[in-house]
Amino acid sequence: MNHFMRNKSIMIMCEQSGGRILPVTHELIFCASLIAGRYDSRVTAVLPGNIADTDSISGADLLVINSPGLAEYTCEGWEKAALLAAEQIMPDIIIIAHTSTGYDYAPRVAALLEGGCITSVAGIEFTPEGIRYRRSGFHGKLDLLYGAGKPPLVITVLPGAFPADDQQAEPGTVSYIEAAIDPVFTSNLQYMIPDQSNTELEHAEVIIAVGKGIGKIENLQMIRKMASCFNRSAIAGSRVACDNGWIEYNAQVGITGKKVAPLLYMACGISGSMQHIAGMKDSKTVVSINRDPDAAIFRHSDICIVEELEKFIPEFIREAEKHRA
């Protein structure tokens, strides 16, 4: 049975930086508006932070959880802010962005509210049985549909899965809760953030991206030689390639990396998770090389090459050198 009936509430957790609401929040509002339009629901966006005042937001009421302890993101602080807001709003569904911060605290919120949790949502469908939430599975090879489960349901939505609402919806009301949220299980550590800029990647017309499928770091040599066949080219990597130490993190493409839109994007040994697709989906032409004919990356590619990288790339380089000669 569908628990989501009319006149219920939808709660959104805003993504913010320095008190400024980030654009991905408007994608969450668009997702919420699809549900609200079907079920005549009220949408409230929750903004945690140390904020004196803020403007209203289009398409939703805005509830500001104001506390000095929320000046910077912590899992504990955002969790407490979400629970405080949920106590007032009593939502049937809580929508959070599937970002490095969002999927950090979202499952904890669901567990503490004794509700369900669905992560990496890429779409929603309405059926006679109720709402179904779509996400990919088995390394992106399958689309899976999930029912709501026990309310309140917490979902994390992939950035880019929904458009930002540009229809200039009516702004809602703004209200504040002054709270004394002080994380007690969070320790402050001294750390340095390395320079994440990568001008080569940002200005490249051709990007050769490598994934787990290249097998070993030694195969980067042939990738670099392949990149040298193009002018204004750069090498990038998937999350796995960066975690393995093959590629620097400032060259990672995906939700937790960079978003790129080159004229040509070549994916070598990349399975095609939605997290990676979100970072390169605006590329003009996508060529994918993978030995797995069912690789999910092929669904997002203009040219699909089913072959071992060690066979295809040397042959490509030979042909490119003949053409250049």
Can you walk through the features of this model?
The chain is 26% helix and 26% strand. By secondary structure, the protein is an alpha/beta fold. The protein folds into two domains: 9-178, Rossmann fold (3-Layer(aba) Sandwich); 199-324, Rossmann fold. Helix 2 crosses helix 3 and helix 5 packs parallel to helix 8. The radius of gyration is 22 Å and the shape is elongated. The chain starts with 8 loop residues before the first strand and ends with a helix.
CATH homologous superfamily descriptor of the largest domain? HUPs
Total beta strands: 17
Proportion in helices: 25-40%
Mean pLDDT level:
90
Q: Largest sheet, order of strands side by side?
A: 7-11-6-1-4-5-12
Specify the CATH class of the largest domain: Alpha Beta
How many separate domains make up the residues?
2
Main β sheet profile: 7 strands, parallel
Annotated CATH topology of the largest domain: Rossmann fold
- Stretches with pLDDT under 50, minimum 5 residues: 1-5
- End-to-end separation in angstroms reads 68 Å
What is the number of helical segments per DSSP (H or I, 4+ residues)? Answer: 8
Report the radius of gyration as a whole number of Å: 22 Å
Helical/strand content category: alpha/beta
Beta-strand percentage? 25-35%
Q: Outline, from the CA principal axes?
A: elongated
- Sequence of secondary-structure elements: EEEHEEHEHEEEEEEHEHEHEHEEH
